[in-house]
Amino acid sequence: MTIVEAVTAATDRMAADMPPLHETIDTDALDALLNRQSSSVAVSFRYADADVSIKGNGTLEIEVGGYPFEENNE
User: Fold this and answer.
1) How many CB atoms lie within 10 A of CB 60?
2) What b/e sequence results for 26-35 when a residue is b if at least 16 CB atoms lie within 10 Å of its CB, and e otherwise?
3) What is this structure's pTM?
4) Which of 15, 33, 37, 71 is most buried (most C-beta within 10 Å)?
5) Residue 24 near residue 47, CB atoms below 8 Å
């Protein structure tokens, strides 16, 4: 769910307008891979017009149109 929320924020779309994540990537395999807690693991894929990168240390990066998305929490 974190991935979908991050991509909706980056693309300024509503979650209801997003395709199901499991149609893009095997979410069970992604969970299994990331739950091994190896910091050397990195997975990248394209989802809903965004480039998504997830690292084993929990870092989630979203790029839209080649630009990194940075959420403003102010």
Assistant:
1) 14
2) eeeebeeebe
3) 0.83
4) 33
5) yes
